[in-house]
Amino acid sequence: MxxxxxxxxEGFHPHLHNTTGQPAAPLRARxxxxxxxxxxxxxxxxxxxxxxxxxxxxxxxxxxxxxxQTHVAPATSSSDHHHGASETAIHVVAGHPEFVFLxxxxxxxxxVRLRTSPGDYIFVPPYVPHREENPDPAEEAVxxxxxxxxxxxxxxxxxxxALGTEEARSSGADGSAPADGSSPGDRQ
Length: 188
Hints:
About 5% of the residues lie in helices and about 30% in strands. The protein is mostly beta strands. The strands form 3 sheets. A 5-stranded antiparallel β-sheet has the order 1-2-10-5-8. A 4-stranded antiparallel β-sheet has the order 3-9-6-7, with no helix packed on it. Strands 4-11 form a two-stranded antiparallel sheet.
C-alpha cells in the first residue's frame, strides 16, 4: 500500500491535528489505561452502596463522560437517589441486583422492581428517583456505570417518589435552594 488511508487532519481520524497552534493538553492527547485495582472511591456516594470512579474529569480529563463501578453488599439496599441531568447506563457484572423506581405514569403510582442478572443493562433517565438493592444473602452485586456527565452527580433523597413542582421547590430537588436554606440534595 503506497498511499495513506487518511490525510492528517482530515477524514475519520484527526491525527490529533491542532488548529490553534498550541500543543494539545496532555490528558487529551493520549489513551488512558485504568487498571481494575486503580479505581478510587473519591466520588459521590449513596448510603448502602460504594461507587468507584474509573473515567472522570479528575482521573483522565474527560469532559462529557463519567464511568466507574458500584458495589452493593449482600442483603443491602442503597438509599433513594437520582443523578440530576445525567443519563446513566448500567451493565450488571456480578450478582443479581434489583433496581427499584416509582412509575407514576398511570392513575396510581406503582413501585416497579427490575430484577437483573450478569450481562443485563439498565438505562436510568435524568432525574428519575431510584435505588439499588441486593437481596442475595451471600454474593456482592457489582455493576459498571457510564454517565453522560463528566463527574458522578448524585442527589440523595429522603424517599422514593416523583416530586411535584411544589414539593421539588420545598425540598430543593429541582436544583434550587430549599425554602429552609439548606443545600439541595446531598452531593458528597
